[in-house]
Amino acid sequence: MADRWLLIETFGGPGREEPTVIGIGSTPKRMVPLSSVLARGRYLPDTLALVARVVATKEPLRITSSDGARQLVGVPLVAFTGRVHGVYAWIGGPDELPPSRDPAGAWHFNLTTGRIGGSDDLLDLYGVPPELRRTERAMAEAFTRLTTNADEAAGLAVIVKAQPGAEHQATWSVRRDDGQIRAAHFACRAVAETGPDGGVEVVLRGITHDIGPAETTPSAPTRMVLAQQVLAAQQEPGKYRAIVNLRTLRLLRWLDDPMPDIAWTNDAPHPPGLHPADLSRARDLSRALAEGERVSDVVRLRSAAGGWVPVRIEANLMLLDEHTTAAYVVLTRAAG
Questions:
Q1: Domain residue extents for the chain
Q2: How far is it, in rounded angstroms, from Cα 308 to Cα 299?
Q3: Which terminal residue of the chain has fewer beta carbons within 10 Å of its beta carbon, N or C?
């Protein structure tokens, strides 16, 4: 392992006492137990101790192995919330220098509040200039720079179900702010946590790992799959398509450019929202849709200027997995 770093997740969660490996060098791994990667060798206890100390201190650490024959180096991946989502670990000879590390960053989706956040490491990976960085964003903003793979529905299902212990891994493409398109492998797990008010919140903890240029990484989606081509062919001027969480009525993602003049990001001058007088009707529409009906109505959404914009919505039920549904919604500006 002296020529490669181990990327180890420390998300926690039910039944996950031992950290798992999600990357060796630039090669993604599917949450392989650390004991399997190190073959239960003599440096497994030292590595476990290294990871535990890095998680506790949230600082880089160098230690000497118990037998004195190796050095171990650990570097934390700390999320905006202050939790350590993962540790880069390297084992080498006493006089060796660690190799360079691939960029990686920590992130969280709070599935209870609908807010997300990323670490500075993640924003470095995205190439975001310092003056444009924000600590928290709306969930739908996460998809604006991503080209997803055929497993997107499975990823959205994890968000909609919000069940502690649920996991997902995939390789998608990321368009950096400087225009570069990178292959990014991500791994995440939903964990129940205590929120600021003492209530239980379900948080999706994740790590994104830059594994190379998208055009030279076979697992990265560089072209539209057939379903995306069909969606693109159906696009019409003045109509804006989105996927909405039926349970929370929150926007999951835009399928096209966002609808103009609608407040939907966390940095909008006025918070996104549905007119209070329309909330009951929107819930009735959601229930009807969940029962298999196609629904259509006019509701008022918060405008970027602070007022309310009448919007006609036409929605169909869409299946994310065998047991999970969402709403495929077409929005158009209504008279009023």
A1: 1-222, 224-336
A2: 9
A3: C
Pairing of strands 167-175, 146-147: antiparallel
- 249-287 burial code (b ≥16 CB/10 A, e <16): bbbbbbbeebbeebbbbbebeeebebeeebeeebeebbe
Those residues with Cβ within 8 angstroms of residue 83's Cβ, 6 or more apart along the chain or in another chain = 106, 108, 205
pTM comes to 0.91
- Reported as a single tens digit per residue, the pLDDT across 124-181 is 999 999 888 877 888 999 999 998 888 899 999 999 999 999 999 999 999 999 999 9
Q: Provide the CATH topology of domain 224-336.
A: Beta-Lactamase (3.30.450)
Helices (H), 199-308: 226-233, 279-290
Query: Is the dihedral angle over the CA atoms 185, 18, 139, 294 positive or is it negative?
Result: positive
User: Which residues lie across from 206 on neighbouring strands?
Assistant: 107, 188
16-37 pLDDT, tens per residue?
Answer: 778 999 999 999 999 999 999 9
Does domain 1-222 fall under CATH 3.30.43.10? My reply is no
CA 66/CA 49 separation, integer angstroms: 11
Contacts of 53 (CB under 8 A, 6+ apart): 61, 63, 74
Task: Say whether 224-336 and 1-222 share the same fold.
Answer: yes
Q: What is the DSSP letter of 85?
A: E
